[in-house]
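Researcher: Quick one. three chains, 1271 residues in total.
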Amino acid sequence: MSFPLLTATALAPAIGAVATAAVPAARRTAAKWTALGFSVVTVVFAAAVLLRFDTGPGADRYQLTESLTWIRDFGVTYELGVDGIGVAMIGLTAILIPFLIGAGWNDADPKEGETPQGRRWRPTQGFFALILLVEAMVIMSFAATDIFLFYIFFEAMLIPMYFLIGGFGDRAGSGDEAGQARQRSYAAVKFLLYNLAGGLVMLAAVIGLWVATNDQLGSGTFSLAAIADAKAAGELTFGTGTERWLFLGFFFAFAIKAPLWPLHTWLPNAMGESTAPVAVLITAVVDKVGTFAMLRFCLGLFPEASNWATPAVIVLSLVSIVYGALLALGQRDMKRLIAYASISHFGFIVLGIFAMTSQGHSGATLYMVNHGIATAALMLVAGFLISRRGSRLIADYGGVQKTAPVLAGTFLVGGLATLSLPGLGPFVSEFLVLVGTFSRYKAAGIIATVGIVLAALYVLVLYQRTMTGPVKPGLEKLPDLRMRELAVVAPLIALLIFLGVYPKPVTDIVNPAVEHTLSDVNKTDPQPNVTVTEAEGASHE
Amino acid sequence: MESLIGLLVAAPLLGALVLLTGGRRLDRAGHWLGTALAATSFVLAVVLFFDLLGRADGDRTLHQHLFSWVPVAGFQADIAFQLDQLSMTFVLLITGVGSLIHLYSVGYMEHDPRRRRFFGYLNLFLAAMLLLVLADNYLLLYAGWEGVGLASYLLIGFWQDRPRAATAAKKAFIVNRVGDIGLSIAIMLMFTTFGTFAFGPVLSSAAETGEGTLTAIGLMLLLAACGKSAQVPLQSWLGDAMEGPTPVSALIHAATMVTAGVYLVVRSGAIFNAAPDAQTVVIVVGAVTLVFGAIVGCAKDDIKKALAGSTMSQIGYMMLAAGLGPIGYAFAIMHLVTHGFFKAGLFLGAGSVMHGMNDEVDMRKYGGLRKYMPVTFITFGLAYLAIIGFPYLSGFFSKDEIIYAGFAKGGTQGWILGSVMLLGAALTAYYMTRIMLLTFFGEKRWQPDAHGHEPHPHESPATMTIPMIVLAIGSVGAGFAFNLNESFAHWLEPVTGLAHGDSPVGHGTVSLAATAVMVIGVGAAYLQYGRRPAPVVAPAGSFVTRAARRDLLQDDFNHAAFVTPGTYLTRGLVYVDHKLVDGVVNGLAAAFGGLSGRLRRVQNGYARSYAVSMFGGAAVLIAVTLLMRAV
Amino acid sequence: MSPDNYLYLAALLFTLGACGVLLRRNAIVVFMCIELMLNAANLALVAFSRMHGNLDGQILAFFVMVVAAAEVVVGLAIIVMLYRSRHSASVDDASLMKL
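Model:
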């Protein structure tokens, strides 16, 4: 067996979490650097995954596979492997975490006047260790090709997330200390219970899947490869009813995680109350597991049921797009605004997945990557702004561009990425999703385009209210971005521009995986009704 | 030669990048860097132009393929350029007028601390606009299209600390976005119909497609064009956009950006030719806008807003001409170019006046400025004569050709179109004469401002007057040059086609009629504003005047139809989300909580009550067991 | 004498014990009543043993005695401790287990 690269990629942040947590209480800075160091090591491993991944014709669907027997009696294995979609998602996760650590550098420091309570009181260490722990679990769930293994990490990541949301607020909420703590704990509990409920339903489906395989194959299995082989050989066929129930069980959990309307209400609370890096972690990384799993498990395991559910899912995603955007318009709290914008964007991702076209699938995957980076840019700058003024309310800001032009400029770029301006990454993916949807469902494509006007509205209204106009009292001495903050935001913006102009490196990795997924669900792209004759003079030099 | 095409876009893009990220170090020389890069683009354009001229008629299309943009199965979008006669015309106009306006801005923005950034935005705008006209497929065109929208957003809202500028910028972007929906749906339709959206294959196979699809594509393209070119019903942003610095109004809202819609329609001529219904809608939109803009232009006292109304109206002419098909395309573009000269000249003149008048925009507070600003007066005057169609100046040739093409549409339609355009010409003469008289003639009407500073009108510096002089020369001579042997129309013919139609009236008659209505318009304005001094405070006016001052109630309509219901909808949804959607979740949680609260009471801590439940439970179990036995 | 009568007696004793547990507050008395119930059960077990003619019931009765003895040890200790801390042997006073 060759070097277990995927395990190493996931293990690096896990070891980092332990190492960070072990740093003595007084050495806060050392803990930060340890966490940053390990997150960079993870980036190196992820880059190795990217390089080792073969996109050539005839390459295996799942590569860098590892396989160990784990719980023999239940057919549970430790099987890892990535397709192009998984590689893209692992890459996104690995790249974002160092920036999140950099952005949250001082977020978990003790407040002024607060004295450390004894040797064991180490919130800073805990904060960064938890972030790394989440990263490890997310990478594992992107790499797992065993359903049970995936389920474990899908659920386990709730635990560190719970503590990150509940334990570290942005100290900018309304009301007194106790009131803020109450809101935070409400958000954290809501996040946990909501997702646990989804996980519980999924667990039932996981067990159902095992029973079905056990009945038909003689021994139950959770391995994607084994199930695919058995299906191809005709040894395993789900009855229509069974398949639909299993699909719904999985889909429910992923729809909560994604989050899809009407299961979205935990997100604004969770993102509003947590610190900006944690909010990014939720929406840009953890939630992506939901949409990723729809592609890999819902479509891959239950193709018939996926086709059966498509109309309903498309309606839900359209509602998400429009509803999320309209609610974003109505928010007074900028972090909640970004959260609702994310709900709208997740609607686009789900729409792309269930359009069942190669443009839709490539677009959805690309969308996951781009949305991660764009939201990170916007949310982190918003976080920097909030930490300066100590308020999340849009009404407390105004004329910031006068005192902090660089901050305003980066905020605008993040906002423009959110509204999918051409030249920035999200445009490419949004357009692919729209085209992919339109070529199969015209009406859905047209309704979704309304989302692009609404996106322009909520972004520009936010920018206008916070950044333009006369300077609000209390903001006259607002400092501009510091070097650390600029170092976090500038590379993200550069990445957005790069992916907007030259997304080929990502699409090349994703395309083969998309073909496989499409053949899973037995769909081919709709063909144009006119065959085009290449016009003279249109040939390229 | 092909490799130069990319450089056309790259030069200003580089400028934008350097100026916007370079920081304060570039404050001292940034504006010259921006101007130099714009001029570089212009020089490249001239080189390419002569290269094209040196080629045979059918060989004047150059391609440059840079790289594959979005390679996804079945979906090929490339970063690739196409330079043909149509793009070349636009490139020359954009870079030429653009460079002049850069030069003008050096003087105009001299005292603005953020001048470097202004030039960065101007360069960004040039790059986006060039991308728009040079793209060889609709998706890349879309990128330029939105890029232009962004640049205009940044420039309109350049003075961001003024809430009105920020609002106007946002409004422009959002109204444009509504139009962009049209463009994206059109591209999606092309993709599903043709499997591609590159100009070559789409336009060459358009004729083989069903008319229904083409009509749909055409209407969607028209929606996009309406947004960008400020045509009814998406016209409302243009007037507000005058909040931006005046060079911006000249560059974006007169000479270049607003013409993008005309470019789109002409470029997609093959689609419109095969979809007569869509063409009819284009004509209607053009005709309505040309009257609408003219009426608004007659009522405004703000010099820039009056000129903005005029822009709308003139673009209405172009749009109408573009809707006429091959008999109009070439003349739409010709009017576009001549309009680029004289409208830019007019705006720069207006800017020069404002520069001398402490940024006062109300024409009623000008008066008699010809003595103080001779150069501005003469250049503005020449542009004025050109726009009203004074014989043998630019506007005379290009507008008469469009009016003639309108008659050539034939039948009742032709008569209606011709008459509407003649009406428009009369209105043009009226409002332009009104601007001219209020600004440069009569007695001085300015007063000290609130701080007691009285404006001291003075001529602008050379950086500002030189561009005005160049544009004035263009306004005077361009039409005549273009019309020699129909050279302009023949130059464009390989791209747009050319037909002469069948006009019931002759060329000479049309010219005579146009000149006659112009005289009527000028005379009416003179009677109203020239013979007696104009009041400093605008009279109340009739209902029509008041409506026209409010842009014919467009904003009131938009507010009532979209903004207010939208606000209530969002508020309602926020409530619904909180109370209903989240309410169900919280309700479920509360139900469980309540249930446990009830159940908890059973655990009251008294050992004897637990004993009772134990005995009771045992008794029930025994009873059940016995009953089961019995059954 | 019919063995049934032993069972009636056992039932009577058990009922008496149960009523005592439910109605009396004094922990000692409650405790005694529990013992009474246990012994009622023992009586029934022995009677059954006799009726069925095997020793199972008697063996079980011995187990119950052992359990009862253990209970006395632990239970009395608890009651004594309770009395020391609260100066009362009432079971209703020790109702702190509720939240």
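Chain B has a mean pLDDT of 88.
Researcher: Thanks, that's what I needed.
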